Model the fold of this input.
Amino acid sequence: MVFLVGMMGAGKTSLGKTLAKQSGLPYFDTDAYIKVQTSKSISEIFKTKGEAAFRKMEEECFYTLTSKAQWIATGGGFPCFNDLIVKMKQLGTVVYLKLTPEELHARIQSYVNRPLLQTSEPLNELARILSERKEIYEQADFIVNGNQSTENLVKEFQKLGLV
Done:
């Protein structure tokens, strides 16, 4: 298993789908799984049940994963709660797609449904969240510059021997 971690907007989903297609291995998206299981959007879950309940759902999602080799795109906070970064590293390889707050903001500024960015200063909030999560993200087995084309990212993963 290869877990893709990083902030919202880092490109985990699109890269995961591309890597799965190229490698012929299954793709799994933790946020998509939770949406299907609850029949609610992530925003709705945050509004109606709160962040703590969502983090519990992420942990439950982790325990549904099988040991089949696959590409797993995680939600931005997924590795940061319930010791999931440690558990992911025990189960597979973790790759952090690293971007600056400014790069992330440029990618996601048009998304109005990001529950943690419902603020008047989304760039500042991104920087704050990234600062809180940085130490956990950097426990990944590999850290990759996420601010490049999907094609170049695939080449990086090939160099790392993951594809």
